[in-house]
UniProtKB/TrEMBL annotation:
SUPFAM superfamilies the record matches: Chemosensory protein Csp2
Source organism (scientific name): Bombyx mori (Silk moth)
Swiss-Prot/TrEMBL keywords: Signal
InterPro entries linked: A10/PebIII, OS_D_A10/PebIII_sf
Name of the protein described by the UniProt record: Chemosensory protein 4 variant
Residue ranges of the TM segments: none
Signal peptide per UniProt: 1-19
Amino acid sequence: MFMLFIISFIIVSVLKCCGTETSTYTTQYDEVDIKEIMDNERLLVAYIGCLLDKNPCTPEGKELKRNIPDALQSDCNKCSDKQRENADAWIEFMIDNRPEDWTKLEERYNPDGSYRTKYLESKHNATSNVDESK
């Protein structure tokens, strides 16, 4: 199950050091409070707009947007544990709470829908495991 964010980066804050190929993304923004962004409509809309080229981006938003394709293609191989955690939280939030925005982001960054499929399968498996343990 992966990222976007995808988005949000914000969330993932995946910067490459010095513009050269690195084994991991910078962890400079790993402490960004993703929950605060998801709970704040103004911040959330600003980040979504940045990722969709509808409004200006913060410097970290620009880097995130530039690195999302690589992170998606590599299944976040260069992400820190915190970046993966934030990406998963972002994707879950967007799919469950902002499906229209998720669809727009997915069309741009993940047109084959593979990350939605992974998330929904994971969610189904988690629900099945809970049901079986009762």
